[in-house]
TrEMBL record:
The chain crosses the membrane at residues 38-59, 111-139, 159-187, 199-220, 232-250, 300-321, 341-365, 374-393. Keywords: Endoplasmic reticulum, Glycosyltransferase, GPI-anchor biosynthesis, Membrane, Transferase, Transmembrane, Transmembrane helix. Pathway: Glycolipid biosynthesis; glycosylphosphatidylinositol-anchor biosynthesis. It holds the Pfam family Mannosyl_trans2. It is found in: Endoplasmic reticulum membrane. It is a multi-pass membrane protein. The keyword Nucleotide-binding does not apply. The keyword Transferase applies. InterPro entries: PIG-V/Gpi18. This is Preprotein translocase subunit SecG. It comes from Kribbella aluminosa.
Length: 397
């Protein structure tokens, strides 16, 4: 024993401890898939940060030096921050009825803001962490759905991060956090882990009204899945609990179980409209710039809504052809909600929630690499334009 120690060899006890410590650290290290995804996440975050600093400076029309930090405080960020600061029973401090926004994201922003970094920065931090988590699970879901395409999961995260509307995955919006719950929820559902799926769908239901559509899709997936387990059926009621709790809370404050929907009707044109009438209104707004008449950015964004509508319809047809009933239910329910409003409004952002779209694009890119180059050649400039529009206060969906 003394000879071994003198020779500088580790003692058996230390060797065991060293191996144990190595395993402990390895558990915290991301896998190869995770490293690839986080690489794309980091590159896209850096690009958006550069745009957030440069766009307000380049497009500044005033004489004062612009506050580039305020570039992140646009549109719904005002309302979500107002919920985080004041809750739901202090009127309309941001100029809109706050009951339209579900509480999960503002609550998390409120907790992070306790660190003293402020609400805008807290929203950016929440979205940054959530988008990283969502990207990893999107890659895992992609590889689970298409196991024959080895190592293509990070491609799905790449096209998702590089989406034309990808700025909303970094800004203080709800999309990243919703996806951070929805993507692992669907992966669990596809694996037949219904309790785990229900828990994640319940969390997603606290973030956006889209959680209602996800609940519906989970039910369809359960009924059509070969991994259906009737003993797990009661778990599917769990996601309704936070939704009903939020509705009951609003009932105490505003006197209506559906105060969240009434708030959307009041603050945004979300009144029920027949789909053909909604499409007519959208086409008129895309061709005449009727709301408001002198805002060309609104005209172009409504044109983008029509493109997004076409893409989502193609996606729905593809999913039905593949007999992906759960995903079809998810996309159909989302489209149904948007196409029965006064006009198709913010569907461009909602495409970020449609994981089958990004997985489908990744499949095409894996099988046809030239399509990947074409996608990036179109998506990156569009993403830069979209981000510049957002950071300078123009309507960007």
């Amino acid at each position: 024993m003394f000879e071994r120690a003198a020779a500088g060899e580790p003692r058996p006890g230390r060797a065991r401890r060293a191996r144990a410590e190595g395993v402990w650290w390895q558990r915290w290290m991301p896998s190869a898939l995770g490293r690839d995804v986080l690489g794309w996440w980091l590159v896209s975050r850096l690009a958006l940060f550069v745009l957030s600093v440069s766009a307000p400076l380049l497009f500044n029309r005033g004489t004062d030096y612009p506050n580039v930090w305020r570039a992140w405080l646009q549109w719904d960020v005002w309302h979500l921050n107002a919920v985080a600061q004041y809750g739901y029973n202090h009127g309309e401090p941001s100029g809109a009825p706050l009951a339209a926004f579900f509480p999960g994201y503002p609550l998390l922003v409120h907790l992070v803001a306790y660190t003293g970094i402020g609400y805008v920065a807290a929203g950016i931090v929440v979205s940054a962490v959530a988008s990283a988590v969502a990207g990893v699970y999107l890659a895992r879901l992609a590889e689970y759905e298409f196991p024959e395409l080895k190592g293509f999961g990070p491609h799905a995260a790449m096209v998702w991060y590089g989406a034309p509307v990808g700025v909303f995955l970094a800004a203080g919006y709800t999309e990243s956090l919703f996806c951070a719950f929805a993507f692992p929820a669907w992966l669990a559902a596809r694996q037949g882990r219904w309790a785990r799926a229900a828990v994640f769908v319940a969390l997603a239901s606290t973030v956006r009204v889209s959680g209602l559509f996800l609940i519906f899709a989970l039910g369809v997936e359960f009924l059509t899945s070969k991994k259906r387990d009737w003993l797990s059926l009661p778990w599917l009621a769990l996601p309704l609990v936070p939704v009903l709790a939020f509705m009951a809370y609003l009932k105490q404050i505003h006197g209506s179980w559906f105060a969240w929907h009434q708030a959307q009707e009041k603050g945004w044109p979300r009144k029920f409209t027949w789909p053909w009438t909604s499409l007519q209104h959208t086409v008129e707004a895309a061709t005449k710039g009727r709301f408001p008449a002198d805002r060309t950015d609104w005209t172009w964004m409504f044109r983008a809504e029509l493109v997004a509508l076409f893409i989502c319809l193609v996606l729905l047809v593809w999913l039905l052809w593949r007999r992906s009933w759960g995903e079809s239910a998810w996309v159909a329910a989302t489209l149904g909600a948007f196409c029965t409003s006064y006009w198709v409004f913010s569907l461009t952002r909602a495409t970020l929630l449609m994981w089958p779209l990004w997985i489908g694009l990744a499949v095409l890119i894996k099988r046809k690499p030239w399509l990947g180059r074409l996608y990036l050649g179109l998506a990156i400039p569009l993403a830069a334009v979209w981000a510049a529009a957002f950071f300078t206060g123009r309507w960007s969906g």
